[in-house]
Amino acid sequence: GTHLARVVALHIKCPPGVLQDLELAAIFVSDAQYNRNICFEASPAVVRLYLLYNHWVAKVLLYLFILVNLSLAFFEEPAVVALPTWATMLVELLCLLVFTLRLVHYARVIPRDKFWKDPKNICIIVILLLTLVDMMVYGALTASGCKAVRWSRVLRPLLLVNVTEGRQLRRAFRSIRNALPQIFYVFLLFIFSLLIFSLMALKLLGKRDLKTLEGEPYFTNYLSIVFDLYVLVTTANSPDVMMPAYNFSFVFAIFFIVYILVNTYIFMSVFLAVVYNTYKKHLKEEVRQLVRAKRQKMSRAFLVLQEQAQEGGEPVVTQASWNQLVRMVRPDISDPHRLLLWSVLDSSSQGKAAFVQLADLLNIEVITLKSRPHPLQSLCPALYQSAPSRLLRRLVQHRAFVVLYDLIILVNAVFIGLDEDNPLIAHSEWVFLALYLLEILLKLYVFEPRAFFSRHSFWNWFDTIIVVSALVATVVNSALQSSGGYTSRQILDIVFILRVLRLIRVVDSIKRFRTIINTLIRIGPAILTFGQLIIVVYYVFAVVGMELFKDKVRFFEADSSDPAKAYCGNALLRGTAFAHFNYCKNNFNNIVSSFVLLVELTVVNQEEMDGGLVNAMETMDNELGSGPSDGAGPAPPHLMFKIASKRYRTVDALLQRMFESDLDPEDLDESSDPEAQSSPSFSNPSFSSA
Amino acid sequence: GTHLARVVALHIKCPPGVLQDLELAAIFVSDAQYNRNICFEASPAVVRLYLLYNHWVAKVLLYLFILVNLSLAFFEEPAVVALPTWATMLVELLCLLVFTLRLVHYARVIPRDKFWKDPKNICIIVILLLTLVDMMVYGALTASGCKAVRWSRVLRPLLLVNVTEGRQLRRAFRSIRNALPQIFYVFLLFIFSLLIFSLMALKLLGKRDLKTLEGEPYFTNYLSIVFDLYVLVTTANSPDVMMPAYNFSFVFAIFFIVYILVNTYIFMSVFLAVVYNTYKKHLKEEVRQLVRAKRQKMSRAFLVLQEQAQEGGEPVVTQASWNQLVRMVRPDISDPHRLLLWSVLDSSSQGKAAFVQLADLLNIEVITLKSRPHPLQSLCPALYQSAPSRLLRRLVQHRAFVVLYDLIILVNAVFIGLDEDNPLIAHSEWVFLALYLLEILLKLYVFEPRAFFSRHSFWNWFDTIIVVSALVATVVNSALQSSGGYTSRQILDIVFILRVLRLIRVVDSIKRFRTIINTLIRIGPAILTFGQLIIVVYYVFAVVGMELFKDKVRFFEADSSDPAKAYCGNALLRGTAFAHFNYCKNNFNNIVSSFVLLVELTVVNQEEMDGGLVNAMETMDNELGSGPSDGAGPAPPHLMFKIASKRYRTVDALLQRMFESDLDPEDLDESSDPEAQSSPSFSNPSFSSA
């Protein structure tokens, strides 16, 4: 096409090719919608490869193999379930092959020089090569009977960061890295304050011949004072560390109070404030770049599709090509929904400014509320519209119906708490199950089933799955019990868990609670990114810990009579608090124990973790009061739309929304100067700007 | 005056009187500058009383008597230093008299109906009456030999909240109270989650016959599970509470990890986010009202002073009356400084919009940098300008001089750390003192003394005070030592503290550190408000605790041979961890122990305290990079001004600055409609809107 040549010429690195205008525009819009920043050549062959690369099946497969690769730690030495080395090696080789293929695919899509300039590609290549080398060395060494260490396992979680789809994760790591210099200065000042306070403690308390509870000299050694006061910041040894001095004179309590005030409250708050501010600042900058790149892509799509409406007028995109475009980008959007989108855009103007909003509009989840008739009404309208049926439907839709079932849930909670060995209690379970099943059936009778089980009816799905699973598990349990008198503990556990989970439903009845839960669900994706980050860090530490400490501490079953049980199989632990408190299972003997241990360590030192969430939840409060939906205005009368404004299809959209009020209008400008379009901010801003 | 009649007529409640226009305008400006919201009658007598009421001596006296009243707890039963009851009663009566006089003074200033409508006045009256009644009842009961409780002592800290000057404190309490409903819902949801998890734990673990470390049944009682899991949220019993289940099977570790994730991380973060957001929202609303009231007062001052420049033109305030006004409001401002202020205002326009800014401009601390010649130059210019003198001055001003003294401080730190019984070390102290004294003298030789000891040179003052005190203390100590061979431990402690404090000076040399410290100093007033709030809460708890628990736990000196020492004098504590860890001094036996104990309890449960500071420090980060001063443009060439933009004269100014970007321009409008000027937001917005 004629526009295409222009567009491609702008995009300097990508040589022109022959391609349908519309197809190219659709790709640009889709890239803008999902904030993909991959520079591809505009030739038909490459575009086909590019579409394949972005296909959801390819992505799911990639993540599946990353998961398989990570979970190899369960089966490798030290293993939870031991598998022969050749088996895990074979699976790992398969994973490496898949990663290589994915990388080659990526290399075919983007221009060669871009590929080699991108640090994340280099990272993946290095990881793959190192893993191969390590596997060969390990194989050779173990074959010759030497001791070998599979050190490349530390690199596995890094793949999660460096794949194209790990954008959120890279952003999180980058924001943390950017906050480090600021934190470093506060940390230095904190250390300085710690040293000064320790020196003062040494001078004031060291010469007074005080004794600790264990009868050792108190505060006489500078380094041990520094350590004690450092631990005091985490409040772990408060008030024990100050008791000898306080018992001597209450004046010294002032010293410790001032210390805690300065170092625990003020410094920790400054830490939190600095982390929060720099993290937020850098995130804002990233979102700004993201929005700019999005606008650029949308302008490009506009350039492809634009037509001159009248001589000298602004170029526009006609409704016909707009419809075709949206149909290509989102085939699942219904005709009326598309009409709605067009009318939203049309209300301003048909020009570029309106067109550019399309990517954001597509990210707003619009639920089409079709007032479809109930299938029973079509099947036997006479029965469905009869007076008893109408009364029943009114009853079910009444507020009292909800209250009645909340009461049933409460009674159920009491029954669960009572002893289930009582036959009356045991049989009551069947009554409750029947009541819950009846509720679902009644609701299905009243509400249109497809609306009841729509994608956004979280609680309906939750109810149905829990009740049906509980029914199945209870039936299986009873069958086992009555047949052989044998009760499977696992099935019983599942039954119990399902019973208790059913009680959660009561939350949905109270509007305030629903709002809080919805907010938590809404920020779920952001928390998931954080979870990935935690997994990457934990995995690295767990693998290193396993290599260093495996079998240093051993756990003995409760019925074991081994004398080593008293000191966890390690003579060094004889008589320590660790062995006394029976902490033997807190070890690095396999990946599961390592993860549990790392979680325990995190929990004890949990000071600094809350800052990130505050950020993500800043908008929560403003929305706690308002209703969950806003009706959209100009829609054909036979249809109702509901903007699911609380949910965001992507984390990027959530972030953009969060910083909307903070971004200047100039930042959102797509730098309409054509020369500026190949600015460095566009080409893979995720890592190349690092 | 003619304008006055208009102004007073607007101010409906205050009847007109005869008064100098300028005087009234000056009061309005001063009220706006300090955000005072006291409605006074505009008669000369009342205005005189009003000025007296706002005089700093009156305020200092008031706070002094509040302090005396609060510190009576040191001398009353249970006392730190016991005084006879009649003495403390007499002092308390004196305090009550002062508070009554202050209240009567206030009642004379503001209109009668306003006085009785203001809850804070009612509060003070009720507190005073209750205290009197309590004193009489207590006196009568003790005289007749009955046991009596001085319950009105709980009310004492409430005076701090209810005096006119406790505006910040009332605001903080109000913001907390406003955040409560939101927090309540999150708390309910948290409790619900706790109950559900406990029920699940009971069902999953109760029947497995597990034992705790002490051999007791594990997780079999629902209420004790709820308690254990509640404590787990504070991570105080982690990982002990999960070890029996984890030892049984690693699957149960997942239960505890999910629990900690949901209740410690997610719920505590939601708590923090909700507290932060609602606190911020309400504070913003308060600041908005504050700014609106300020603009109203400035408009009123403008109405008093305005003159018609030309027919049909905008009314203006002439430079002459403006000068007189500023001279009345701030007599300490120099002529060039006033000229600077005028030129800043003049640059926009002479109208109302510019005039209204005056209150904010007066709150900006401008340091006048007068390039005064050094007194030695005037005394003996030949010597001061000689070549050696010039060289010396260049040396002292050189960067190397600072580095040299930083090195000396570091060496000093090492010497302090070493054993001071060594005579070499003991004598080195004199060398270091001499070096520090030399430094101050050299600096005084180079820099103009009045500039060196200006009000904003925090570190110069710090240095001089520390070094001179250390010199005095060391001399006294040596004199005592050499005269009688007797060393006072107290003086030695002071010497040590001063020596260590001297080391802090090194912080000032590193720019990054200086910025952080300056930020902390800047938000100091906001932290002080928080400190007052803490004292109010602690005092109430301490007094209640003393009445309930005094002498329940007793502390025995280390050399005591009383057998009760092993269980803190309370048989109930025999064999408990409390007695074992020697916590006997953690009791409610007097006000000091009570405060220390409350601090300890706060430190152990310190989860939720950091939120407020983040808020106050939000702007800190942006300023970490920029230089500490900005030169102001249009000033006469012989003078330099430095805007001390980092410091705020009042907490209100800091708050206004914090929310500047958040406030809409409409919010800052002083509602120029004259009818709206007596809106409810003006008349004592601090408490009457409650």
From TrEMBL, chains A, B:
It comes from the Eukaryota. Keywords: Membrane, Transmembrane, Transmembrane helix. It holds the Pfam family Ion_trans. Its main location: membrane. GO terms for cellular component: membrane. GO terms for molecular function: monoatomic ion channel activity. It is found in: Membrane. Residues 662-673 have a biased composition (Acidic residues). Residues 662-690 are annotated as: Disordered. Residues 59-281, 401-603 form the Ion transport domain. The chain crosses the membrane at residues 56-75, 81-101, 122-141, 183-206, 218-236, 248-276, 400-418, 430-446, 458-480, 486-507, 519-541. The keyword NAD does not apply. Residues 674-690 have a biased composition (Low complexity). The keyword RNA-binding does not apply. It is a multi-pass membrane protein. This is Two pore segment channel 3. The gene is tpcn3.
